[in-house]
Structures are given as C-alpha cells and as structure tokens.
Amino acid sequence: MAPGQMHGVLAVILTVLPSLALATDFVVGDKAGWAINFNSTAWTADKVFRVGDTLVFNYNKDDHNVFKVDNATAFQKCEVPPPSNALTSGSDRILLKTSGKKWYICGKPTHCSEKGMKLVINVQEALEVPSPSPVPGAPSPNSANGILASGYQAFAAAIAAIALLVTV
Ligand SMILES: *[C@@H]1O[C@H](CO)[C@@H](O)[C@H](O)[C@H]1NC(C)=O
Ligand SMILES: *[C@@H]1O[C@H](CO)[C@@H](O)[C@H](O)[C@H]1NC(C)=O
Ligand SMILES: [Cu+2]
C-alpha cells in the first residue's frame, strides 16, 4: 500500500471510531510553547485532560523552566520549589498519573507572578474500558466487557503500529 493510501485508511479509521480512547499529548501553549504571556485560562478552555495524557512543555531552556507546585496557595503566590525539582530540558514531558488539580509554574523571576507562566489543570479520570482480570474456570459477568477491552487494546495497538509505519 502506498503511503498516501495508508494515510487515507488511518484517517477513515480515526473518523469512524471517535470514541476510541487514546492518550493525548497536550503541547502547552501550542506553537508558542511555554513562554511569557502564556494564558492558562485561554489555553485550557477547550481541553479535557485525563489520566494517561501527557503535558509537553516546549521552551527555550536558557529562559524558562518548569516546576510542579503542590497546591493552590503555592501556585497563587508563585512559590518556587527547590531548584533540584526543576524540569529544565526545554522539552519536558509530564505524564498525568492521577486525577485532580495540578499546578505548574516557571521558576524564573517574575515569569509566574507577572508574565503568565503558570498553568493549572484539572485532570479527569481516564475513559477506560473495564478490563477485569479473568479467573480460570469462573466466567465473570464482565467477560463480554473483557473481550471488548482486549479487542479495543489490540485495535489501539494496530492503530499505533500503522501510525508508526506512516510516520517513519
Ligand atoms: C486570558 O484569556 C482569557 C480567556 O480568553 C481572557 O479573558 C483573559 O483576559 C486573558 N488574560 C490575559 C492576561 O490576557
Ligand atoms: C502548599 O505547598 C507548599 C509547598 O510544598 C507547602 O509548604 C504548604 O504547606 C502547602 N500548603 C497547604 C495548605 O497544603
Ligand atoms: Cu519563564
């Protein structure tokens, strides 16, 4: 199959099955990245963050960094945690492992307090298809869901494989 056709097939599959839950990478600030005049309210407005998704902070590492802060108070006051807690690669990925509010700031002077470099998100539970662990010899009432779940997982793996083939 030609690469163009593959793109087509992938597009059709992704269009037909919008309910398939795949983890999302959210690039903070989109093209502008993690930069001064970031607007947390505007950037998060149309997004739903879920456990399993990833935040990607792209920034000039000479100018900025990323700290996770523990609570709303520290966030509001722009309290910078110890330097050893900084993320500094310039392209940091943060996997969202738990639900609830998460707070991130830039630790450079005034960037959080005056230049908008602070992000608060509310992470929702993952949209998971239940996958009960099968007990041999004891068919559970959820076994149909289990089969569905493995089907979905296999399907998601297939999609990922196709996507990889298309992008390399
Ligand atoms: C951030 O975006 C919100 C929503 O679009 C807007 O109301 C607000 O004025 C913006 N804040 C700044 C500091 O630009
Ligand atoms: C908020 O987090 C800061 C920094 O970790 C900590 O010192 C403070 O006690 C926390 N406040 C509350 C109310 O948990
Ligand atoms: Cu900064």
Model description:
- With 168 residues, the protein is of the alpha/beta class.
- The chain has 2 domains: 21-124, Cupredoxins -  blue copper proteins (Immunoglobulin-like, Sandwich), CATH 2.60.40.420; 139-168.
- The protein is 30% helix and 18% strand.
- The protein has 4 helices and 7 strands; from the N terminus they run αβαβββαβββα.
- It has helices at residues 3-16, 40-44, 72-77, 143-167, and strands at 25-27, 49-50, 54-58, 67-69, 91-95, 100-105, 118-124.
- The strands form 2 sheets. It has a 4-stranded mixed sheet. It has a 3-stranded mixed sheet with strand order 1-3-5, with no helix packed on it.
- α1 packs antiparallel against α4.
- The chain is globular and about 50 Å long.
- Copper (II) ion (CU) binds at residues 63-64, 106, 108, 111, 117.
- The site of one 2-acetamido-2-deoxy-beta-D-glucopyranose has 4 residues, from α3.
- It comes from Cinnamomum micranthum f. kanehirae.
- Residues 1-23 form the signal peptide.
